[in-house]
Amino acid sequence: MAVPLQDLRAQLATIRDDVVAAMLRVVDDQSFILGEPVGKLESAVAELSRTKFAIGCASGTDALLLALRALDIGRGDEVITTPFTFFATAGTIHNVGATPVFVDIDPETFNIDVDKVAAAITPRTRAIIPVDLFGQMAAIEQLVALGLPIIEDAAQSIGARRAIDGEWRMAGEVATIGTLSFFPTKNLGAYGDGGMMVTQDEKLAQRLLRLRTHGGTKTYYHDEVGYNSRLDTLQAAVLLAKLPHLADWSARRRAHAEYYTAALADCVTTPVVSPENESIFNQYTVRSPRRDALQAHLKARGIGTSIYYPLPLHLQPCFAYLGYKEGQLPEAERASREVLSLPIFPELTPVQQNEVIDAVRTFCV
Fold first, then answer.
1. Cβ neighbours of 145 (radius 10 Å)
2. Which domains does the chain have, with CATH numbers?
3. Residue 167: enclosing H or E segment and its boundaries?
4. pTM higher than 0.90 for the full model?
5. Which of 151, 109, 153, 158 is nearest to 132 (CA)?
6. What is the pLDDT of residues 281-310, one digit of tens each?
7. Are 179 and 152 in contact (CB under 8 A)?
8. How far apart are CA 229 and CA 194, in angstroms?
């Protein structure tokens, strides 16, 4: 049996009527730019994230870019982040004129090693961007304690939470600005690009609102040079129709992860979730020193997989100017050689999951 890495059609089959109806309401209303669903989604995401403000934008990448601009980060500044993440995390730092400073990762959680961050701070450091990779939050409370603005890249972790001082705190809740992505394969995915920023700071929220609309809040009047980065009303309508299902979808992913781990722990290195975290498992990522052979074996069996990420950012050709050399960030480099993500979408059936498990175990024999 072939098992895809993702199956968005299976999800659509369960919500099609609601989503189509929501989209048709937008078409009938003809309010495609910043229509009513955008504000409703912003309110709902702010409530989910336990933040005072949420501001929609065109993509998760733009959410990072706008957050950096809102904090006045630019030429001559440094921003500390992880090398083991999607390119946008560091690409946006470069695109505002600042310098990415990479710190190695925790080999168990794949998130930034917070114990190494303090040593990377210089007088030019203006912010830290931790990434909640694969659906579990970084140790954000330890980063906040360092006294620098925190942009939490929560593109993969909407609805994830972490116990801090005995209280559950949501992804995006304690950061200076949290950024979200609604890329179609995320736990809450649009039917195209979309993103959002969340914050507790009213002044930052107002600036983010300006920056997403050419730097102004009044038509044809511009306080600064901003961007055209608005969340489409159609995408907001789709996301509003999906949002009531998010908690159940993430719970199913956790159940799939538990089942995988019980079946595969003696075969591959299974994901480690910090005791403080509740992950939403945007990805289920195992490690194997024979990763490439394992992926080829699974492909031959019709099992979809993906490598997130095959080359860490500090070794990407476009960042050669930063001067990093192979061996400087060994855990990120080792992870890039060993990681492999398996199917974990909510609609994955027991038969499909057992097919994946059997295929992996056959390789390990």
1. 11
2. 8-243 (3.40.640.10), 245-364 (3.90.1150.10)
3. strand 167-170
4. yes
5. 153
6. 999 999 999 999 999 999 999 999 999 999
7. yes
8. 9
Cβ–Cβ under 8 Å, residues 172 and 51: yes
pLDDT reading at 190 higher than 90 = yes
Instruction: Give the C-alpha separation, 239 to 38, whole Å.
Output: 9
Q: Reply yes or no on whether the pLDDT at 233 is more than 90.
A: yes
Instruction: Give the separation between CA 195 and CA 200, rounded to whole angstroms.
Output: 17
Q: Which two tokens stand for residue 291?
A: 């990763």
Residue 121: per-residue pLDDT: 98
Pair type for strands 125-129 and 78-81: parallel
The answer to whether the CB of 136 falls within 8 A of the CB of 187 is no
Cα 109 to Cα 119: distance, rounded to the nearest angstrom: 20
Tell whether omega for the bond before 309 is within 30 degrees of 0, i.e. cis. Answer: yes
What does the pLDDT read at residue 365?
81
What per-residue confidence (pLDDT) applies to 110? 98
Residues 283/308, Cβ–Cβ less than 8 Å: yes
